[in-house]
Each structure stands twice: as C-alpha cells, then as structure tokens.
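Section 5.1 Outputs to date
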Amino acid sequence: GDVIHYTIVATNTGNTTSEFSQAQEVGNVFTWDAGAGADTSWFTAANWSPDGVPGAGDVAILDTNATINLPNITNATVATFQQSAGTLTGAGTLAVVTDFTWSGGAQAGAGTTTLGNTGTLTLSGAAKTLSRGLINDGTANWTGGAFAGVGTFINNGMFNASVVAPFSPIFRNAPGATFSQLSGSSAFNAF
C-alpha cells in the first residue's frame, strides 16, 4: 500500500512548540470485477481490480451484481469491506477489522462475517438479505433497509437502530452487549 507522512505542530499559549511526525501505511483498494469469469473465488487475484487478493490492511468492495465465493479453505481478513450489491457466499469466514459498510446485496452460505471489537458496521441504503452468520464485536448502526433471510446476527458489542423496517434473520443480543432503538421502531426475530 501507499505510505502517508504527516506532521502535527502545536503551539501553546507560552509560545512553546511541539512537533509530532508519523508515517502510516494505507492499504490498497480492491474492487470485485469477477476477472474473466473463470470462477468466483475470493482468492483468485484476477477477480479483483487491481489484480490481487485483498489482505488485512486493505479495502475490499463488492458493488456489482456478482457473487464472491469465500470457500472454507482459509479465512480472509480485510481492514474495510463495502457491499452495495451482489452476494458474498461460501463456508469461509470474512473478518473485517475496521469498517464494514453494507448498503445492499446479500450475504449467504455456511460461513460467517465478523466485525472486530474496534470496528464500525454501517447498515444503510436498500434492502439486504442475511443468510449466513454475522457477528458484531464492535458498533453497528442500522439506519436504513429492511433485512430478509434466514441467517443469524449476533451482537457482542453495541447495536444502534434508527430505522422503521423489519429484521427477519435471527437476532441475538449477547450478555453484556448493548441494543438501542434510537428512533423509529423495528420488528426483530429474536432468539
């Protein structure tokens, strides 16, 4: 990825100046383009643009009506996952460390998508279908779009609902987790 260098200079009221400099590596952005259509595997480099497989520090984007298969051969980890269309499926686990923005499309299969404990899950936009496991260990903000499907959403962190829409998958709020209906009213299939 690229490296960003930044410097912060602060001066207090006594005219004393402090300076802090840091270099931070920024991951690459990979957008699903299904390559030449030979397969739908997450791990096929030609299925992403630019060619390559997103890693733990990268951004992965699914914004087209296509299918990504995450097979149960090894798990995938990305810093950020953005899904506005298409289907993520398969028996593998997708771990999202920092930011998961889901505004459309479907998640299916026997696998699990997990959000890390410092991450933010933004559920907005159009209707979504959850037919796999989704585990929130961070903060989830649901602001738009009904949920269909037969999957299970497990909230181990904080879940904020600000929408009037049905949530058909099973919703489990773990002991010690926080659920807040900030506005609107939503119908949940709690278990």
